[in-house]
Predict the structure.
Amino acid sequence: MGEHSILPHCSTIMAAGTYAGVVSCKQFVVPLGNKLVAYSGKLCRETGNVKMDIEDLDTFVAVADTGGISAAARRLGVSKSIVSRRLFRIEAELGTQLLARTTRGAALTEAGSTFRDHAARASAEINMARETILPTGGLRGRLRIAMPLSIGPTHFAPVLAEMAHRHPHLHIQSSYSDRFVDLIAEGFDCALRVGYLPDSNMIAKRIVTIQGRLVASQDYITTHGSPETPDEVVAHEALMQGTESWQFMDDGKIVTVQPQGRFKADNAVALAAAAASGLGIAFLPDCITHDYIRSGALVPIMTRYPPPLAGAFVVRPPGLHPARKIRVLIDTLVDHCIRNPDIWGLGREDLQA
């Protein structure tokens, strides 16, 4: 074991002398709590006894995956200074540089790239072992989740509140936005996404099937008519989230059209309100439109060509095993959807096309 003394302003590495009958040792500046201290002795790597904290491994993997200290700090729910100290500690233990700090973040060195895969596997296995021996009801730590603004507060937020009640030691941080969220770069454990999932390396689990439909107000239909086939959609004023494609089923085949329109919004609730005002036609999920349809403010149109079934999915970054908190979230969401079919527009006779 080495000795340490407080050196609050020390920032250099110093070589110590040789003691009679004692092998020469060195002094290193290393973090200890919130201070820098001088450590006299051999590093663990020099004695073949490398000791690493699982939090240090998790931190290194987070920085490697997110590409920067700030993003890793957000993912882990700690300060940037803590992330920096953990990186310093693990590089000191290994005696090699794992990350090259740049103005744009942090890039893996050759050694860091090799070590990252081993660290990720070791961290995953240890975390799995921890979860295995924990009581079945005792979730701890932090769950950071991204949710759609259009339906997150109404359809998903009650599930998070239920989890918080069941697991008083679990810290839940939810972010609501209809923009596409980069889970890795922004440090999220998972996201809830609704619609059709694009191809990606993310791992997705469907929690409920969602039916969409083409809708318009009666005033719009009276003034402009309604499309009868997919080919006629392009002749109508479409209300869209951006530049997008709409898909419809025609005798078992998918037909894709490119709608045109001057009104765009990145929020499905806003598009439903615009459609109800008579501004145009909209392609929206039943969980957004069922109250409008029930009241007569919107009318399903082109019902002989329904859209392919969509869904709500829990999406997480790739990894060997999903964290237990994510598995519990998925199970709770599935149960919530089964117990509350009406919120998705399911099981209502007045919504049958």
Q: What stands out?
A: Residues 1-42 form one domain. Residues 110-133 form the longest helix (24 residues).
